[in-house]
Design goal:
about 210 residues, mainly beta, four-stranded antiparallel β-sheet, 17 strands
């Protein structure tokens, strides 16, 4: 390089430039721990690389970011829909600022199973998935008519939440859980189904 002015060009100086190659595309994409509403994304990590991870339903055109600028090769994602085909992608970068070079893969969340095997006097209740971290589905069945409550209790019997309080006739129902468990600490709890002073209970884990 040199500098030029009105009186001419000054002495030249040598500058060494190191060109860092763009990282190769991420490899080893696979998913583990698939449930009806969650998954763990995995890929092969190379030292010095940073990664950006996105996902979306295949039918959607909008990517949802999971993580950016991370150097590990695994990240979990909850709040997915059951029985849904998703696409996910990983970008390998030489800095925390991502470039638009991705490796992509697909996965399908598990189908929700609404079969209830835990029955007592015709009352049944189950929660899927169990353990649960985000969204969940509570399936329950009623043999009679009347006001129904579904409540969350600690192992010590302290009532924490009322998830349902309404009149219903006999049949099988579903209750979607979206944000109700966000305030629960990690641990073990009971779901109590009650109608006409009878009902059933199921234990679940929040993680």
């Amino acid at each position: 390089v040199s500098q030029s002015g009105n009186c001419g060009e000054g002495p030249r100086a040598v500058i060494n430039v190191t060109v860092t190659a763009t990282p190769a595309a991420a490899t080893g994409l696979n998913v583990t721990n698939i449930t009806t509403s969650s998954v763990v994304f995995n890929w092969t990590v190379l030292p010095g690389n940073f990664y950006k991870v996105d996902y979306k339903p295949v039918v959607s055109g909008v990517w949802i970011n999971v993580a950016t600028g991370i150097s590990v090769g695994s990240v979990a994602q909850a709040n997915l829909a059951p029985a849904t085909l998703y696409e996910w992608r990983v970008s390998a970068n030489c800095s925390a600022t991502p470039v638009n070079t991705y490796s992509t893969a697909q996965f399908t969340t598990k189908v929700h199973n609404n079969k209830i095997t835990n029955l007592k006097d015709g009352y049944g209740i189950k929660i899927s998935p169990n353990p649960v971290s985000g969204n969940a589905i509570i399936d329950y069945t009623l043999p009679g008519n009347g006001n129904v409550t579904i409540e969350v209790f600690t192992l010590q019997g302290q009532r924490l939440q009322t998830l349902l309080n309404r009149s219903q006739i006999n049949g099988q129902y579903q209750l979607a859980i979206t944000q109700q468990f966000e305030t629960l600490a990690k641990g073990v709890y009971f779901l109590l189904l009650t109608q006409n002073n009878r009902g059933n209970v199921v234990k679940f884990v929040k993680y």
